[in-house]
Amino acid sequence: MAKITFITKDDDTIVCEADSGSVMELAVQNGVKGIDGDCGGVCSCATCHVHVAPESVAQVGEAGEIEKDMLELDDEANERSRLCCQLEVSDDLDGIVLHVAH
Amino acid sequence: MSTPLTANKVCIIIGASHGGVNLAFALRKEGWEGEIHLIDKDPNPPYHRPPLSKAHLTTDDGLEKILLKAPKAYQDNHIELHLGQEVAAIDHVHQLVNLADGSSKHYDKLVLAVGARPIIPPIKGIDDVKHLYPMRTADDVNNIRSAFSQCSAKRVVIIGGGYIGLETAASLRKLGGEVTVLEREERILARVTAPIMSEFFQKLHTDHGVNIRTGKNVVELRQNTNGQEVLCSDGTVYPADVIVMGVGIRVNQELAEEAGLKIDNGISVNEQCKTSHSNIYAIGDCTFHYNKHYDRWLRLESVQNAVDQAKTTAQALTDKNPEYDALPWFWSDQYDVKLQMVGLSDGYDEILKRDESTDDQHKFSTWYFKGDQLLAVDAVNNAKAYVVGTKLIGAKTQVRKDVLSDPEQDLKALL
Ligand SMILES: Cc1cc2nc3c(=O)[nH]c(=O)nc-3n(C[C@H](O)[C@H](O)[C@H](O)COP(=O)(O)OP(=O)(O)OC[C@H]3O[C@@H](n4cnc5c(N)ncnc54)[C@H](O)[C@@H]3O)c2cc1C
Ligand code: FES
Q1: What is the pTM of this model?
Q2: Among B19, B66, B124, B414, which has the highest number of CB atoms less than 10 A from its own CB?
Q3: Could B66 and A40 be called an inter-chain contact, meaning their C-beta atoms sit closer than 8 Å?
Q4: Do B383 and A65 touch (CB under 8 A)?
């Protein structure tokens, strides 16, 4: 079981728990504002953009090649950006904090 | 941002799919304070359609994995969902929506997000075959999955070699099906892409063991004791346990037509998604709209268009005077190939292919030009080409074709 915290642009904090699925699905299931997931999670739309909190960066890891390329379409992208449909929920992600980019 | 003027107003949206659902949430974001009603005849909670022919078909996952929004989000945003309810008519004089169950609802603003339905051509014998399904709704997928799992030979015939047909072919092949695709044109994807891409996908499917047959005009379907048969005009016969019909869609424009709205190749809307009647808007697959970038009227079948028109309409309904100006994009996933497309290639006079494939992976991009103007890019396993293409097309940048054609040079040098 992993506990994942989303902080939205309106400064809402939403804490979710799950043991499988993608982080984008988790966000949508919990109505996290700013995570639209328009492509359904196949890294084609960049509407699931989060900035990983500095303390969680090591735990979450780096974006893959396609993900990095897709992030370039977004003006809000920085070195801590991830498309969270590409993050699989697992125990390894327990405790991470993600700031929704939009 | 509050728009008090909308506090006592009622917005009714017909169609709770990519267009309608995104509109409902965008309306709240833009400050619409009145009621929002989303009506759909589909009884299932609103879901993503693209995964239906892709990942969703190959797993046993339920619909909850592909819902557009969480059930709770509708409540939190005071969006009333009326599922399993069909709108029978629009009474624009009295601003009423009449439902099939005899009830009616008043609206101040009405949005048609009614999309399209699969074409089921009147082929001889089509009503006699037991396992023929289109691929548009969650129920269609359930029917296909269950017919497929119940038959032993797993012979699938897909009529129509467009994106949806080919994705379905890839997914059912992955599940062990013996799949044949019958395409009437001389090449698959003939309506939507260039010959070079058709060839690539034909080979891809053939390499994966799918039988692609072009120039096949299906003229009759027969039900036998041990399955079905698909007959073509050239006399060939294909036995099938499951038949999937993927020959395109027809816009659900009847409601609009009967209400006297202007119709062209779909429901005509202006740059704010307003129809020929004030107070009635239309978005998504059902609209015939103007694309500013390409200076052309068109109809699109894509999530991008449904979502972007939803955003434009939400702004229009809250008096922000928007203008629809979006670059079309689309994707398709088949086997381990990810195709991403941006722009509209119609009218191209030159194609440049940039091949960056390795021994174990297809990776290339196709660039469509009209003179010096870059019109569109199709990128296969190449998100960078897609992203660079999007930027170049959007900014109408002159592209250095020598750099583009040389895979040794970084694409970013073009920006
Ligand atoms: C299998 C499949 C794969 C796809 N793959 C992709 C892809 O990879 N990428 C991409 O960009 N696009 C893809 N698309 C296209 C995309 O799904 C559509 O463009 C999108 O769904 C359009 O949304 P919409 O809201 O305009 O219309 P629709 O999704 O068609 O929704 C219209 C809704 O209106 C309802 N409705 C209609 N009339 C009435 C009535 N009288 N009363 C009540 N309800 C009514 C219908 O039940 C329906 O739910 C795919 C489509 C399918 C079917
Ligand atoms: S959901 Fe589309 S990129 Fe993540």
Answers
A1: 0.97
A2: B19
A3: yes
A4: yes
